[in-house]
Amino acid sequence: MTTTTQPTAAGSSDEGPRLQTSGLYSRQLPPYFPPALLAICAAVVSGAFFLLGSFHPVPVAVGTALVYLVAITASSAVVENGRRAKDRLVTGVVYCCFAIAIVPLISLLSTVVVYGIERFDLYFLSVSMNGVIPSMDAGGVYHAIVGTLVITGLATVISVPIGLMTAVYIVEYGRGRLKQAITFFVDVMTGIPSIVAGLFVVALWILVFGPGQTNGMAGAIALSVLMIPVVVRSSEEMLRLVPNELREAAFALGVPKWLTIVKVVLPTAVAGLTTGIILALARVIGETAPLILTAGMASTRINANPLEGDMMSLPVFIYKAVRDMGLSGEAGVYAEERAWAAALTLILVVMLLFLTARLVSRFFSPKKG
Fold first, then answer.
1. Structure confidence by residue, pLDDT tens digits, 67-83
2. What's the rounded Cα separation, in Å, for the pair 311 and 150?
3. How many Å apart are CA 313 and CA 216, to the nearest integer?
4. Which helix (H) or strand (E) holds 147?
5. Burial group, residue 181, by CB count within 10 angstroms (0-12, 13-18, 19+)
6. CATH architecture group of domain 125-364
7. Could you say which of 198, 221, 306, 350 is the most buried, measured as most Cβ atoms within 10 Å of its Cβ?
8. Angle in degrees, CA 280, 169, 225, rounded to 5
9. What does the CA dihedral 193, 198, 203, 207 come to, rounded to 10 degrees?
10. Phi/psi at 297 (nearest 5 deg)?
């Protein structure tokens, strides 16, 4: 039996017959339809609220989202099919949840920037409040920046080695009841209120140095109590993500276990470990209650020595400025301006920390290929 081939037309492809489009994808909404439908829904809902005389962005946004979800699902069910309609409905719900999560963050950041930029300048960042009374339009936040960097830096120096070594023990060496006990106490410490950590350090400080001894070191220890469990948990999860094949390959070459951890496990997880440490630092850099109890809130001078008296920090500075907002006259206005500017400074410090973490993760993580 012989087979014959049909000649191909001039200019046609020799790759064989082209597959026909499946019926599942033959009828689709055009790509521009969802954004166009969203714009139409927003215009209709906004017009309805405007005619009713109760226009407000929040109910308009909620109404637009609901109308859009119903419209896109019905349109997809009519033009496409039930599976695509369900997919578009779930996709719309996911986008709505994302908007619900991101809108408060954008609102918070924009509010802090709008109100804080009025006093945020080089002068505000380079002078302290030493010798400045509340009614004076002067003073800055430099002493609080120095105190924040010193206290959080010491807390990081204390917390990172302890937390990282604890995580290494849990993942690499831990067995039996001791491992269970450590994991249990780490979970308990994660939920400790910050004020309890401050009271614990105050009691410890009174026993060792006597009453009334507040300084930056006490504040760093209080923050480290809150920071250690976060470092342990994040480091533990990152170490568990390292493939066991890497450990087994090192063991097969005769490398000791401790050297495998130092040369293989930790470098492989360095990106995640750095991110976890920065998250722990960001968790404690805004704490106010433990620092009021341990580092004090009366300092207005530049103090870089953690063992020499009270040390101001940015969260405590903001708290003190907000408390002074109740003063009459221009003193309250100046206090409000300082509070917003200090809040903007704290946000920028946290953003700088996250940027540093990203750079460290990028340059020190193992290269692929």
1. 999 999 998 888 888 89
2. 9
3. 9
4. helix 142-168
5. exposed
6. Orthogonal Bundle (1.10)
7. 198
8. 35
9. 140
10. -140, 15
For residues 154 and 216, give the distance between their C-alpha atoms in angstroms, rounded to a whole number.
Answer: 9
CB atoms within 10 A of CB 108: 12
What DSSP letter does each residue of 44-78 carry, written as one string? HHHHHHHHHT---HHHHHHHHHHHHHHHHHHHHHH
Give the pLDDT band (50/70/90) at residue 367: low
CA angle 3, 7, 11 (to 5 degrees): 150
pLDDT in the model for residue 366: 64
Closest among 339, 352, 350 to 119, alpha carbons compared: 339
pLDDT (mean) for 33-51: 88
Question: pLDDT for 157-196, tens place per residue?
Answer: 999 999 999 999 999 898 888 889 999 999 888 888 888 8
Domains of the chain by residue range: 33-116, 125-364
* Residue 369: predicted pLDDT: 52
Q: Does residue 334 contact residue 321 with C-beta atoms inside 8 Å?
A: no
Task: State the chain's maximal CA–CA distance in angstroms.
Answer: 107
Of the chain, the percentage scoring pLDDT greater than 90 comes to 27
**Torsion sign across C-alpha atoms 50, 56, 61, 63:** negative
Model's pTM, two decimal places?
0.78
Give the count of alpha carbons within 13 A of 125, CB side only. Answer: 11
> With b meaning 16 or more CB within 10 Å and e meaning fewer, what string describes 262-280?
eebbbebbbbbbbbbbbeb
Please give the DSSP secondary-structure letter assigned to residue 303.
-
Give the DSSP letter of residue 191. T
How far apart CA 55 and CA 39 sit, in angstroms, is: 17
Counting every residue written for the chain, the total comes to 369
